[in-house]
Write a structure and sequence with these properties.
Blueprint lengths: L1 H11 L11 H5 L18 E4 L4 E3 L8 E6 L5 H17 L6 E5 L11 H11 L5 E3 L4 H6 L3 E2 L1 E8 L2 E8 L15 H10 L14 E2 L5
Parallel strand pairs: 3-4, 4-5
Antiparallel strand pairs: 1-2, 1-5, 3-7, 6-9, 7-8
GO molecular function: antioxidant activity; oxidoreductase activity
Organism: Dyadobacter chenwenxiniae
Keywords: Signal
């Protein structure tokens, strides 16, 4: 009953329009993943293959002030809606020490748009200025506790550790960039750069459920 009411509310505010139809199952399906990092935890290192063919690890960013890790995908309508905003985040903050690292944990057997070749095509066509990594084994997504695409984890470099400072949405309007009122990721990084605490540390991500391999 509660789910039906929630769906009615979502439809009434126009989140799903004919031009951007989304299978509600992508949003409502519960994922098997649980746990993962909490705010204040230190993230473990990882090493994944990027669309340029190189292997990229978290340790490659030891000279950065932090990183903006975003779990995303090619097929997801929400990820597509946020793509330009992800590019904008990197354009704004990479030069200030907080580059974006995009990771695709989606099973290409479920969505052919998420094959490595399609990832390469997408990165090239959009001119990503950040690494786009394939999490084939889905181990990094599981370690982080990611459940949806897109989902953001902002990590601050503290000594030898990358500490989680924010988890959740990029902003508060998946559908319309012009209607955004809360720039969660932007505000979190801006606060960290200013030496201030992150005010909003957790938000509930809205996006496509990650399909876990059996």
């Amino acid at each position: 009953m509660k789910i039906c009411l929630w769906v009615s509310m979502v439809l009434s505010v126009g989140l799903f329009t004919p031009a951007k139809a989304v299978d509600l199952r992508l949003l409502l399906t519960e994922t098997k993943q649980s746990g993962g990092y909490q705010v204040g935890d230190a993230a473990a290192g990882f090493r994944l293959k990027g669309t340029d063919g190189s292997m990229v690890s978290l340790n490659d960013f030891n000279n950065a002030k932090g990183v903006i890790v975003i779990f995303t995908s090619n097929h997801c309508p929400f990820a597509k809606a946020y793509e330009d905003r992800i590019i904008a985040l990197n354009n704004k903050f990479a030069s200030q020490g907080y580059p974006v690292i995009a990771i695709n944990p989606s099973d290409p057997a479920t969505h052919q748009d998420d094959t490595f070749e399609k990832m390469k095509e997408r990165a090239a066509s959009k001119g990503y200025g950040y690494p786009y990594l394939a999490d084939d084994a889905q181990q990094v997504a599981k370690a982080f506790g990611a459940g949806r695409t897109p989902q953001v984890y902002i990590l601050q470099k503290n000594g030898a550790k990358f500490t989680v400072r924010y988890i959740g949405m990029i902003d508060d309007n998946p559908q319309d960039p012009a209607g955004v009122t809360k720039l969660y990721a932007d505000e979190a990084v801006s606060n960290l750069l200013s030496g201030k605490p992150v005010v909003t540390t957790i938000t509930k991500p809205v996006g496509c459920a990650i399909k876990w391999k059996n």
